[in-house]
Amino acid sequence: MKYTLQLFLILVSNFLVAQHHFESSDAISDCTGAVNILKVGDCRMQFSGKGGKTNDFETYNSLKDIPENNSLFCSFKATFNGRFTLKAKSTTKFRMIVFEGETIYPCEEIKKGSAEIKRIISKPFSEIGLDLVVSENTLYPIDLVAGKEIIICFIADSKVKDFIDVSFELEPVNYELQEASEGGKLLDLRTKENESSLTILIRDYETGKPIISNVTIIGLKQITASYQGSDFKFTATKSGKVLIQVDAEGYFFIDREEPVSAFTENEIVIWLEPLGQGKSMQIDEIEFSPGSSEFLVSAETKLRRLKDFLALNAGVNIEIQGHVHSNGEIHLMGKNYLKLGQKKFTNT
After folding, report:
1. Residue 84 lies in domain
2. Where is the secretion signal located (predicted)?
3. What mean pLDDT is predicted for residues 234-255?
């Protein structure tokens, strides 16, 4: 007999932080002593074996379980509009947090708790990255405009002075990328300007405005890939079904399967629900092996999608409720309060 788990994500609250006095420090283990990465390419840095003079994370409730006992800060400023990626490797396991501020003093914003956590890998790995191909230890890239500075903090899992090798890349978008209406971005990948197209539009469910999102398309060979934007135009040379996976910060994710006809006009509008207190999302068909608490292999994809959501939205709190279905019966599994980005779901 199979048991099917139905998960409900309920947003408890937006992330709130207290103000805190800014204290400077020249140590590499503090944000104000961050290594300035002046150009793209390979870089070798070394953990200091200590946590620095100040606790840079103390105003972030979502980071309270990440000990800053051996941290290494570096900063990267974009010299042109581009997509920022990195690959980091060390002999010791480490974590990574990427912050982005709104002013020219991002470290002060971090101390006050007002800098945004753009990416977080809270589980230690010996290799970590930002890339279009997402995995357990790799998250989506970050689009940067010229002059934007981000702060990257690597945190070793032990008090060692090991080296960390990091490759920093900022790649200009090499396809036609135009401004769409109301702050969106149009990605036009048609082979000819006036030919019939598969159009995919990502919109805010409440405002109708374009949402710049990470979009993965699976199913038709010629367009199967990961993209970033709000409006997309493709040439579909074959008919078939496509799976469209959409992720955007501040929104519930969407996985949607759609039929596509070759050489005809196809328009698909995907509405994203913005996060808000009391809102919920339902995830169905997470199945267990008969008589066991082990997930079936078929549940792995949905659990990974849930994990990606947690990693992308590190600054809010959610409540998870589970209901088990068996022979028409529904059983409440209980409630578990999680802080986004702090805990991972694993397929055991």
Report:
1. 16-171
2. 1-18
3. 91
